[in-house]
Amino acid sequence: MTVTLDEETAALARVQAAEQKISLSRYIGEVLRKELRHAEEYRARRATKPFPLKGPPRPYPKREDLYDRPVFRRR
Length: 75
Prior knowledge:
mainly alpha, 0% strand
């Protein structure tokens, strides 16, 4: 398998692999595995339906029920 990376990405990957004391090939495999697992978990979460709302929708409260001051009505 051939993987093509730009120079900056390749250099950063080599540094990360060296810091973890693993080969570049193994480092790329682990990063890819983590990314794919994350993507699969995201897809699984999106596939679940949202929880159902319970009961019928309630109407909005009237302004008079929320505030003490009277309602000013224009004529």
